[in-house]
Amino acid sequence: xxxxxxxxxxxxxxxxxxxxxxxxxxxxxxxxxxxxxxxxxxxxxxxxxxxxxxxxxxxxxxxxxxxxxxxxxxxxxxxxxxxxxxxxxxxxxxxxxxxxxxxxxxxxxxxxxxxxxxxxxxxxxxxxxxxxxxxxxxxxxxxxxxxxxxxxxxxxxxxxxxxxxxxxxxxxxxxxxxxxxxxxxxxxxxxxxxxxxxxxxxxxxxxxxxxxxxxxxxxxxxxxxxxxxxxxxxxxxxxxxxxxxxxxxxxxxxxxxxxxxxxxxxxxxxxxxxxxxxxxxxxxxxxxxxxxxxxxxxxxxxxxxxxxxxxxxxxxxxxxxxxxxxxxxxxxxxxxxxxxxxxxxxxxxxxxxxxxxxxxxxxxxxxxxxxxxxxxxxxxxxxxxxxxxxxxxxxxxxxxxxxxxxxxxxxxxxxxxxxxxx
Length: 422
What we know:
Elements: E1 5-10, E2 20-21, E3 23-30, E4 38-40, E5 45-46, E6 49-50, E7 55-63, E8 66-73, H1 80-94, E9 101-105, E10 111-112, H2 119-124, H3 133-152, E11 155-156, E12 158-165, E13 169-175, E14 181-186, E15 194-201, E16 207-214, E17 227-228, H4 231-244, E18 247-252, E19 258-260, H5 276-289, E20 297-298, E21 300-310, E22 331-341, E23 344-348, E24 352-353, H6 355-364, E25 369-373, E26 382-383, H7 386-391, H8 394-398, H9 405-420
Parallel strand pairs: 6-17, 8-9, 16-18, 23-25, 24-26
Antiparallel strand pairs: 1-21, 2-20, 3-7, 3-11, 4-5, 4-10, 7-8, 12-15, 13-14, 13-19, 15-16, 21-22, 22-23
């Protein structure tokens, strides 16, 4: 029998009936380095220039005294321990409750490393070089300043939700005749092509921000590329900002087994990077222009879960992440976060989750709409399905989890959502 222990912590917030006037703001800050950096996502390699700039983008929402800060950063990943360090400093210097702040990354594989390797080194055995403390400090300061500015700029707003679809992604677990799984393209494999949208406007209809939630690895360009770039997520965000105005936050979804349809090319041109403006960007524009005006009466509720699930037997758990394991380090303590905004539920996890899990939970959720934000508040590697663990391949081989993790997460998230629904 698979063992499962759940630790539940609910943050008290107003009930859905206590909706209040919404205030919101958005901030965009350039974090493009001025010198060569180690790039993360493939083999160790150093940048030799910039193709397009990378940013922090921050959305702040506040209603009836409860806030939600969402950050999208154009980097690949960072350690949960580094996330916790930055969030503690953010709360110390701004007074903002770190439990109300979600820090997500777009997962571009053409951006600098950020913070110590910790989990990345434990899983993949890379990062033998020293990490850049100066650049990490620059990014940290920029993030804290951006959140503080977003807090100071809050103004009356209204928001609306919508979904559309786009065919810019594809399953990447290619199968050979012998059943062997390798990284490639699999048009017959499961893929989540739903695009989730959150639009925030001023009362007069002018744009403040748009959140675009879509599952797609930031791997249009391969390890041969040495130019800093936001990859496809960055290209789409920049295009939408130009076309629609406001600040556009690209939030990745359950993209653990999902690639862009043009993937791992040597450079932006051969990878058709600009075409993602059409493949994904134009689908978003059409959906946004058809959205209803939205509402300024909003209730925000936060929640948290910690799921304890078995650790892969041969994995040596990093000392830096002792807080994310049981005392005997045989089980991982995986933190999940939830926020209900009116009748829309958003949940997140610091993993590269397979899309089948996200789709299954979305279909079983009691909320009117359910969005999943991946790569958020740290990174614990891949969270594959039980079937994928049986099949093998890169993701299960490098995951810290066991085949039990899909059932553990699915069961507990659905149970939580049923109790969280009011």
